[in-house]
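>> Question from a student workshop board

For tomorrow's exercise we were told to take the sequence and the ligand below, predict the bound structure, and bring the output to class. My setup keeps failing. Could a helper post the expected result so I can at least see what it should look like? The ligand is adenosine-5'-triphosphate.
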Amino acid sequence: MAYLSLTNIEKSYGQFRALDGVSLDMEEGEFVCFLGPSGCGKTSLLRIIAGLDRQSAGTVEIAGKDCSNAPPEQRDYGIVFQSYALFPNMTVARNVAYGLRSRDEGRVAEMLDLVGLPDLGDRYPGQLSGGQQQRIALARALAPSPRLLLLDEPLSALDARVRLTLRRQIRALHDRLGLTTIMVTHDQEEALTLADRIVVMNHGHIEQVATPAEIYARPASLFVAGFVGAMNILPATATGRGSVRLAGLELAGGQGFAEGEAVSLCWRPEDLTIDAAGELEALVESVEFLGPFHRATLRAGDLGCFAIDVGAERMRDLGLSGGSAVRIGLPVDRLRIFAGHPS
Ligand code: ATP
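>> Workshop helper replied:
Here is what the output should look like for this input. Compare the format with yours to find the bug.
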């Protein structure tokens, strides 16, 4: 049985529909990220799960109990916000003890240990770094031993290095405590590295729910293809006989599309190859050094620009630079085709 079940959640603010029929089941012990662009409804959905806002329609079940109308304190979760939200006039220890029924010094010490800050109990939040404040917020959320942890962009206010460390600590805590965790983020790298499953959202609905590897390899829509990871999206036309026409070439694929239908062909930069026998002629516009590989920007006639990744060694062999003429292999087994062109 699912630990958390959302069924047909809708949320309207006046005339504006922020969530439109969202349904989702989460297993106990799962780490799920809500990922999507600004304004897609991630935080609205999290706040509805938390009972901080009420859905306009639909139901929320937690641990087999219908919580659709239950107040937050009956939903057994801990929550951490982007802004830390610690009480500035309370010591760290009192902040952590805040959610406990009785002031339990032992539990507070245990929580401070858990987040790796055992000696900071007497400080005030203003005397801590952002990363430390967020770890205290985490300790406070976890002190009452909730089974569900809700995280609303908890890492966005932190610098890159602290973000990386805390990201790992959050996942380790989740595993160690056997929590069920939902994290809202607009950072795809965060979602890809942390989540068991990612819920990709757009305009108030779910585009895809899948593991990070599945989302990356098999995006379910043009939106997901363009939103997660680098992707070349090339405009083409279906022939109606199981092939597509791209810049004068006819390539296999596109079953189910009608003749003349506009389609988008999607290849990741690492899936295209520079190959003397490749189908497509292109000119190198620029080459960017990215450490273990280079990303070349190419132009091919009316197709416009697209990117291709070339490993360091191959790059040395090819000696590519701006103006080089190349041929590009278009592997149809790596091709994803979607209806329409990007808006
Ligand atoms: P972000 O990443 O920018 O925080 P989000 O995906 O979390 O975005 P939400 O905060 O859930 O998005 O907001 C979804 C939409 O609902 C947005 O268009 C937002 O402007 C709107 N919205 C959110 N809260 C309210 C409110 N109280 N009144 C009116 N509109 C709201």
